[in-house]
């Protein structure tokens, strides 16, 4: 069975360093966490044959790569613009070297909105990227940010916009019925909040290999909104694939989660 997953490219720091100097600084920091930190950093930075070999071992066909968190949102405008260009060029080279195995999400300098829009257009038009990478936050921060996007009317203005969130929905599926206690007379939106979470959002595993959590997500949003991912290298690709294979779903639904949903959304 084919499978597609989201993964990560590289990390950043808040320091005003060149791309090369940032890598050296991160290496120093990772080594401070012992062998595990150094190994994760090495895997993050590997966009070549070793990563492909690990994908083969886990029976994963395609990875969609993006800049890992914390991303460029922590930098000021000028620095974020320069680093976005470097990161996207680096990722584009990796995709060119392995076009059948890698695809990309662009890194965007969100502190400079006009430049971010231009960089997204450039990355999609010239590099063939499939969308944009991390926006803001992690876990509950991400959940709150997404709710703010909904309440701000973004999906009413751009109804075809689709957002991906990881970690089985960052706790949002658990809260989804409760969110509808704010009805449209209060929010002034075109639809209930749950409708946006079911129609404008996709959800990936991202290392949350927990059956009860998956079943809650499945019951709340449906199989067509769920995508396989491993959160590599923070979590094991092989363990993620094993979790996928033992999900209590039909073969047809497993195929949707493994690759069909991602293939339709990202045109893989």
Output mean pLDDT: 90
Number of domains: 2
Q: Strand share of the residues? A: 5-15%
Order of helices and strands: EHHHEHEHEHHEHHHEHEHH
What's the helical proportion of residues?
40-55%
Q: Can you tell me the residue ranges where pLDDT is under 50 for at least 5 consecutive residues?
A: 9-17
Radius of gyration: 18 Å
CATH class of the largest domain: Alpha Beta
CATH topology title of the largest domain: TIM Barrel
Tell me about this structure.
The protein is α/β, with parallel strands linked by helices and 268 residues long. The protein has 2 domains: 128 residues, Metal-dependent hydrolases (TIM Barrel, Alpha-Beta Barrel); 127 residues, Metal-dependent hydrolases (TIM Barrel). Helices cover 52% and strands 10% of the residues. The protein contains 13 helices and 7 strands. The strands form 2 sheets. Strands 1-2-3-4 form a 4-stranded parallel sheet, with helices on both faces. It has a 3-stranded parallel sheet with strand order 5-6-7. β6, α11 and β7 form a beta-alpha-beta unit. α1 runs antiparallel to α2, α4 runs parallel beside α5 and α8 packs parallel to α11. The longest helix is centred in the first third of the chain and has 21 residues. The radius of gyration is 18 Å and the shape is globular. The two termini are 15 Å apart. The relative contact order is 0.14.
């Amino acid at each position: 069975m084919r499978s597609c997953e989201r993964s990560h490219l590289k990390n950043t720091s808040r320091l005003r360093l060149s791309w090369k100097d940032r890598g050296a600084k991160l290496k120093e920091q990772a080594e401070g966490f012992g062998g595990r930190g150094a190994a994760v950093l090495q895997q993050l930075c590997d966009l070549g044959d070793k990563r492909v070999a690990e994908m083969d071992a886990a029976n994963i066909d395609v990875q969609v790569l993006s800049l890992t968190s914390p991303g460029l949102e922590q930098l000021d405008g000028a620095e974020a613009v320069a680093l976005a260009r470097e990161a996207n060029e680096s990722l584009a080279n990796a995709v060119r070297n392995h076009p059948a195995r890698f695809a990309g999400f662009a890194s965007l300098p969100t502190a400079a909105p006009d430049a971010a829009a231009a960089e997204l257009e450039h990355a999609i038009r010239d590099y063939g990227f499939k969308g944009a990478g991390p926006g803001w936050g992690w876990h509950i921060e991400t959940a709150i940010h997404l709710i703010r996007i909904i309440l701000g009317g973004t999906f009413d203005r751009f109804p075809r916009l689709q957002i991906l969130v990881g970690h089985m929905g960052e706790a949002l599926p658990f809260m989804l019925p409760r969110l509808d206690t704010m009805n449209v007379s209060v929010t002034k939106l075109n639809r209930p909040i749950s409708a946006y979470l079911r129609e404008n959002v996709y959800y990936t595993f991202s290392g949350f290999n927990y059956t009860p959590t998956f079943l809650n997500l499945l019951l709340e949003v449906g199989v067509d909104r769920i995508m396989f991912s491993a959160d590599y290298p923070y979590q094991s690709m092989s363990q993620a694939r094993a979790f996928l294979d033992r999900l209590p779903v039909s073969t047809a639904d497993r195929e949707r989660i493994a690759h069909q949903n991602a293939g339709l959304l990202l045109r893989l």
